[in-house]
Amino acid sequence: MNNRKGSLSAGLFILAFLIIWEAAARAVNMIFILPPPTGIIEKLWELKGPLLIEHLPVTLSTIIIGLVISILLGVGIAVWMSVSPSAEKAIYPIIISSQMIPIIALAPIFVLWFGYSIWSKVVVTVLITFFPITVNTYDGLRSGSQELKELMLTMGAGKKEIFFKLLVPSALPHFYSGLKVAVTLSVIGAAIGEWLGAQAGLGYFSRRMMTQFDGAAVFAPIVLLSLIGIILFVIVKWIENKSLKWRKSS
Amino acid sequence: MSKCGQEKRKKVLEFQNVTFSYKDKQQTESTPILQRVNTAIYEREFITIIGASGSGKSTLFRLITGLENPDEGHILLNGEAEEHRLGKVGYMPQQDLLLPWRTIQENAALPIELKRVRKEEAYKRVLPLLEEFGLEGMENRFPHELSGGMRQRVSFLRATLSGSNILLLDEPFSALDAITRLSMQEWLMEQWEKQKTTVVFITHDVNEALFLSDRIFVFGEKPIRTLQEVDVPLGRPRSLKDLNQPSLIELKDQLLEQLRGKVMG
Ligand SMILES: Nc1ncnc2c1ncn2[C@@H]1O[C@H](COP(=O)(O)OP(=O)(O)OP(=O)(O)O)[C@@H](O)[C@H]1O
Ligand SMILES: [Mg+2]
């Protein structure tokens, strides 16, 4: 009930925003700088062929490959840090400082290393998305209650059993929180990667249209990028609800 | 130790000169909780521990389970000095401590599962017991959907499934209403007689202690040097009416006096 009310007011808010935008764009009347929403949708329809067939698959595969690598890497590092305190001491600061690196400034180097192939964009995506996954999973693995651990010890549980039957289930909600942040960042990561050097992809297309002063065509792929982000988020949310049934009813 | 023949009975649990204190972060020892304590608990005995809050009752259980180790002295299980006691006694902690992501059935089956029994098999074994504990129809619920008393019964059931001959129960019935408490006490008596287990039972309820146990240990001021023992002069089977005998009323008063003295002192 409350939830429905919430999404209703969010919908109304977006609608109002679009109407104001539309009105402002028509008033300013400089389509190459501020295209109206209706113009963007028209353009989206006009360009649907190249956008959906040529550019969307490229960006989507960057995002998916990047996310898969991030999950494997992030969870791997988190588990390693949680079982080995010396690994934690060595790696944790590196992970934090990796977020201080201005990735956009580094990206040309990735282009040098990997060329215009998909991998230079995947690297950017991974660098942006592995952080929330690693940190959240690690915090989750440490959140297992001490009392429950002691209880399991008195039942004769070993390290492995404590890990799989206590730490992993405790970490799961945290992991999903990290993943939800990561999927939204992954879209940004892929787009940035493509701006810096690519031959196809939604980010690349948007940037190319910028040089042609085609405002609506700049926005059209961005609309698609946002849609990818939203859909990925909804998928993760759905998986989360499925696997954390015990939390839903609370 | 008035009961004749007790000396010949097998010692299930023995403390030899056990000293223990919690260490704070600087590793400096605070005042000990137990100081050179000697005691023995025999096969098939039912022992109740009463004592003021903070007197060290739960700490005794942490020592027996192996979560803590004595600073000095030895703890013997079934006649052997065991350094690694974890996994060797059944333990019900003071809080119910159920795993929130497991259903009631899965929670109760945990100790069986940890003994490397297949999950399906473990779950199947638990099902009829849930019914016996008044938890039928709850097997697929999650802990937060149960009342405090129900959760306590799940935790109690889980402790009895450890398969050990020693069962440590830390205030197992504190959240139950009088009627449920009574039926749980009866169930416990039945199991205790059937399964040849030794039970050590912490409670704040003197009546409960008198009704259930062979001997009562009274925990006094810290550090505890000698355990004050009280024999319960009742045969078995018992009924609640037996508690109305003059000698028992006197004993009860005496126990309450002892406890009150501790609080005052
Ligand atoms: N993990 C711990 N670290 C340090 N001190 C502790 C710890 N656990 C308990 N204590 C202290 O040891 C003393 C005995 O605690 P214990 O839990 O054994 O009491 P209790 O007799 O079980 O009390 P209650 O009836 O309230 O459960 C208390 O003074 C308590 O503060
Ligand atoms: Mg206690």
From TrEMBL, chain A:
InterPro entries: MetI-like, MetI-like_sf. Keywords: Cell membrane, Membrane, Transmembrane, Transmembrane helix, Transport. It is found in: Cell membrane. Residues 56-236 form the ABC transmembrane type-1 domain. It is a multi-pass membrane protein. Its main location: membrane. The chain crosses the membrane at residues 58-83, 90-116, 122-141, 185-205, 217-239. One of its GO terms (cellular component) is plasma membrane. Gene3D superfamilies: MetI-like. One of its GO terms (biological process) is transmembrane transport. Belongs to the binding-protein-dependent transport system permease family. This is ABC transporter permease.
Automatic annotation (TrEMBL), chain B:
Keywords: ATP-binding, Nucleotide-binding, Transport. It holds the Pfam family ABC_tran. SMART domains: AAA (SM00382). CDD domains: ABC_NrtD_SsuB_transporters (cd03293). Transmembrane segments: none annotated. InterPro entries: AAA+_ATPase, ABC_transporter-like_ATP-bd, ABC_transporter-like_CS, ABC_transporter_ATP-bind, P-loop_NTPase. Residues 13-246 form the ABC transporter domain. GO terms for molecular function: ATP binding; ATP hydrolysis activity. This is ABC transporter ATP-binding protein. It comes from Pseudobacillus wudalianchiensis.
